[in-house]
Design a protein that fits this description.
By secondary structure, this protein is an alpha/beta fold. 43% of the residues lie in helices and 12% in strands. It has helices spanning 4-13, 21-33, 35-52, 69-72, 87-96, 124-131, 146-158, 184-192; strands at 54-55, 62-63, 80-84, 102-105, 137-140, 165-168, 195-196. The strands form 2 sheets. A 5-stranded mixed beta sheet has the order 4-3-5-6-7. Helix 1 crosses helix 2 (21-33) and helix 5 packs across helix 8. The radius of gyration is 20 Å and the shape is elongated. The structure holds zinc ion. Residues 56, 58-59, 61, 67-68, 70-71 line the site of zinc ion (ZN). Zinc ion binds at residues 56, 58-59, 61, 67-68, 70-71.
């Protein structure tokens, strides 16, 4: 029906979260009608981003530099470490402006179903950071899902003899709730009222 360049564009757009084949076609048409004002600048921005993006060797955050802007920011409290599943969760907490410590991105949760064990997550480097000293408290900001809580237990055990205090987000995170979907006020309240593990 259409040229292969257009078909490829639609196929790739359909892989984006929240876009199925139908909305991918609509998005492709939208871009094609705005070749100069949107499609070309978007293509350039994607090329630039693909070349510039780095994974922070310290915390696992995505940025254009390593260490990332958060790890490199001397004004942040180095004694606080917030453990999150994904970069999206880090962004959700940053949006609230309620947290001034640093982060550690695990890269997911433990999941037997998806074949993700401790070695697939950044747990060893978390323990290494905690043992290196200078960190007083590790805040577990993991989802209130079964996988999230299983991961929280595992991480708590792994940190047991590191000498750091371990706490977790308080009430306000609904059971089954993923952090990224919560509103800023709820995240800020859960951070403030965190409880020791
Ligand atoms: Zn970092």
């Amino acid at each position: 029906m259409t040229g292969q360049e257009i078909e490829k564009l639609i196929q790739l757009l359909a892989k984006l979260p929240g876009l199925g084949p139908r909305s991918a076609r609509r998005a492709a048409l939208h871009l094609m009608k705005r070749r100069e004002s949107l499609l070309s600048p978007l293509a350039q921005a994607m090329t630039d981003a693909a070349a510039a993006i780095r994974e922070c060797g310290e915390c696992g955050n995505l940025d254009t530099r390593d260490p990332c802007a958060i790890c490199a920011d001397a004004r942040r409290d180095p004694s606080l470490l917030c453990v999150v599943e994904e970069v999206a969760d880090l962004w959700a907490i940053e949006r609230t402006g309620a947290y001034r410590g640093r982060y550690h991105v695990l890269g997911g949760t433990l999941s037997a179903l998806d074949g993700r064990g401790p070695n697939e997550l950044r747990i060893d480097s978390l323990v290494a950071r905690a043992r290196a000293g200078g960190i007083a408290e590790v805040i577990l900001a993991l989802s209130a899902t079964v996988e999230g809580q299983t991961t929280a237990h595992y991480v708590t055990d792994a940190l047991h003899d590191s000498g750091v205090r371990v706490s977790r987000l308080a009430h306000g995170v609904p059971v089954g709730g993923e952090l990224d979907y919560l509103d800023d006020g709820t995240i800020a309240a859960a951070l403030k009222a965190r409880t020791p593990v």
